[in-house]
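Interim report, section 4.2 (structural modelling).
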Amino acid sequence: MALEGRSLISIFDFSDREIEAVFKLAEEMAQHTRGRVGLAEGLIMCTLFYEPSTRTRLSFETAMQRLGGGVISVADASVTSVAKGETIADTVRIVESYADVIVIRNPLEGSARVAADYASVPVINAGDGAHEHPTQTLVDLYTIRQEKGRLKGVKVALVGDLRHGRTAHSLAFGLARFGAEVTLVAPPGLEMPAHLATRLDKEFNCRPAQYHSLSEMVTGEEPLKGRSGRQRALTSEVLSLFDAVYVTRVQKERFPSEQDYQKAKSSYEITEELISKARPDALVMHPLPRVDELAHAVDRDPRAVYFRQAAYGLPVRMALLAAVLGRRPARVRKARKGDYRPKPRHEVDFRKVADLRCPNARCVTNHEVYLSPHFTFVEHVPETIACAYCEYEMKAPLGPEAAQ
Amino acid sequence: MALEGRSLISIFDFSDREIEAVFKLAEEMAQHTRGRVGLAEGLIMCTLFYEPSTRTRLSFETAMQRLGGGVISVADASVTSVAKGETIADTVRIVESYADVIVIRNPLEGSARVAADYASVPVINAGDGAHEHPTQTLVDLYTIRQEKGRLKGVKVALVGDLRHGRTAHSLAFGLARFGAEVTLVAPPGLEMPAHLATRLDKEFNCRPAQYHSLSEMVTGEEPLKGRSGRQRALTSEVLSLFDAVYVTRVQKERFPSEQDYQKAKSSYEITEELISKARPDALVMHPLPRVDELAHAVDRDPRAVYFRQAAYGLPVRMALLAAVLGRRPARVRKARKGDYRPKPRHEVDFRKVADLRCPNARCVTNHEVYLSPHFTFVEHVPETIACAYCEYEMKAPLGPEAAQ
Amino acid sequence: MALEGRSLISIFDFSDREIEAVFKLAEEMAQHTRGRVGLAEGLIMCTLFYEPSTRTRLSFETAMQRLGGGVISVADASVTSVAKGETIADTVRIVESYADVIVIRNPLEGSARVAADYASVPVINAGDGAHEHPTQTLVDLYTIRQEKGRLKGVKVALVGDLRHGRTAHSLAFGLARFGAEVTLVAPPGLEMPAHLATRLDKEFNCRPAQYHSLSEMVTGEEPLKGRSGRQRALTSEVLSLFDAVYVTRVQKERFPSEQDYQKAKSSYEITEELISKARPDALVMHPLPRVDELAHAVDRDPRAVYFRQAAYGLPVRMALLAAVLGRRPARVRKARKGDYRPKPRHEVDFRKVADLRCPNARCVTNHEVYLSPHFTFVEHVPETIACAYCEYEMKAPLGPEAAQ
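Predicted structure of the assembly:
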């Protein structure tokens, strides 16, 4: 399946082989991150950002210009036509007549899917609220692949808020798909949601050990299983177990109180001293921007690769743009047994049997009136359906038969 | 008269033949809306927007880049030097040393004229408050011309707020100039101002029928002439009379009460069912963004051309830029009898006889202190003068002789 | 010393010969201000503006595009990641992987120095609060050089707020370095700070006459020496003494009361009548934007060169970018005796002996936690140290020996 004309809304939209093809192309693009390669000559990308994001927008705009293409940009659409009440569907149907590819960031969950549904040009999701941010995941995977030479078998600890962090969820699935060994470390209350852990297991045969703090591994404790975790400090000794430690941003607003935040923060802060005891070739990663969870002093340590990680964003996005624009056909190899491939979506319109709306207040279907809510049955989880836009999961009101 | 170096502030700045020359050039540009044609190589356009407008700005920026030129942009100047009190005259005299053409949007009426007066490079008005938005008018006319093959004799209904809608006013004049047959349909209180109707008649020999709702035409009622209109629903039958129905945005804030708005809105909403009964080859047009006056379901109907209309904005703006930049001389044919041509402006400085200011609070002359108000006598309307900037009309304080 | 790879944070970062080399190059670039010269082909500049500035940003973006390069832009970073708490150090270490040169504007004093310390690509300071704006100074000097044919011996009056005006301070030093004859004219309370006058004298052998109003010179009064000045009107007669009158913006918020502001404003306003009596070949300069200190009517006078001054910003910034990007090696001639050359900075870390922080609340060291305050001993001023970032001066807590 060629990548030309394809949209990337979720990391699940591309097969394993397609992701590998993008990575191969990114290696080639890496030679042009300081020059200009004429692959997108005469083409225009629109960055349609409904909330500001320096890093992601600049990365895409640099990528397009390094490819020789042009850029039109809405750096903060919250102050434009949207204020006049224009829908996403209308906006993209106008922008598609100007631009050859649309990069969209919108706080409504599922909004990028709506954009892709209505646009006749490829749409790339640059973040739709707490839902997905697939190019960040590609960059994270590519960083490990380039720094460690492979993804299969690489031991990765995901540390921080694993409940709300979209980058951590997508990365967990991405790592699982490519055979990395994942460990999850999260403060009590911020663990990865159970249904995601279930899906990791059932769909990708990945059963990550889960801890409340890295130090638990040292004391030989069993991985947590729903027990109320004791709070202990992250210790350096256990770091020697990992090829990569991926630290995610701990967002203050996710905690019930300032006190809880301070407690979690101090237990998880990555310091220079701590990191000095990790494996000499370990990677300390972070999606950036950081707040308090990663000390500035760590920057000096050769294991700190987060600025390189940000830099990898350029060749990866150049490769992605070149591929979906059809200007540099990515060579997608034949799928191997066990490879993930996107399946056709079996969407169920429950309006026939019930007036069902998505209960997620941030879901795009609750903000754009022309959309009719659709749902899909969640594989491996009985009697559960997910919103076809924001993927919010809930109990099915009726069985699959009833909805046929 | 060549178009090189010319500014476009009002649709009246270009003669009929000049507009046709732009349209001819637009047909040529239409072949390059997905590529890049090197006409503006080495030239730079500045989009100087004092209020945000995604659509218009992106359309111009795409046009300039498709022509091979560069763009510098102020997406929302309300937060820049203007806050430090800089005048429009100062800003354009600085920007002209950077850019080869300036595209300005500013909420003050007459502001674009001020920009053109002070700049040594061509200025294009991308909207000066409620005053003018001439490239929208060009795009509207071009859409009808391309879709119906001609403008002369085409039957067009303008529906909606015809009192405040600048696009509707300009379009009415544009259609009149090219011999289209215009019908005006507006809710009571939102009819086209009388002096504009007078001008349509006297200057362009156009006497549009005016209705309060399209259904009145079915009942055989006489067009309204100042009577207080009864409110009736827009009906489908009458749609068969028109080649094009141009729906304009009904702005809530124009109505005295929420109730009045709801009444007007429901009478004028264009629905799928309604439109299905129009002529198979009719055009449903809208300048976008829409709010409630045009149902999303209509999008499916082949008669809905408003997204194509938006797309026509690209070749038209490419043509306009290429022409005023002198990179692709538009071939302007000799004027024919009856053609509109811009006349020299006879401006009157009433300061000699009276300390006269423009009464329009949104007029640029009431905000930029260095400007001295000037006025012109309005043709065909006795004892009436108009502000030379915002064209606000008022009774002349003295006769033409006195002001000489 | 070549300019390739160099940052420009303060006018003191470049030697006299290096500035001359930039000016030579600017003369060459002046031939391309309406075209495009392929010097920066394939390179990208990032304008990273934490506060909006139309003029400076557009000038740089035009310069880069006229050089054939690309631009990525953050027009107002105050609404982006910075709000998430990202440091300047982090931001530039990410942006450097996209862009080949960074142009930064940030209200924190010393912030541009921080950016240059952390970035591996050249950083150009486009204004760091009240501290420095070196490209404005280059443009000012270049304007006089081009209009008068030289800088040496040219008589320049700096008029206005000389206490807070960063452009005036830098210009005074720039003029002194190139041998111009400087006169300072400022309302009482807004005189140039004493330590700057001292430095002008000791380091550059420049002892500008200082007046409270230009008219004092006519009355034969001695230049002020700390006396409380009487307020007298600026008169036209004295203008014949100057080759250039550089008027700076008088900012209302600098005055203790509205009354004080009105008094100063009316004494210093440059009017058409006043300027008409200056030398026929005098230059009236202003950094723009102006407020009330320079009448619009002056624009008509051929001596008003401030719009040309703004236009000179383009070739100067083109030359600077081409030079630091290494695409057009500026030929720097050998230094002559007495030339200014940047000296190695001897920074003192007083933390060893005292917990010393910069007392300037707007200093970057008081906002970016990872920075450790450093200080330098001020030459010619006994027992005085200056913050190594914002250059705020204060009494040294200990002698130089103690800090070794």
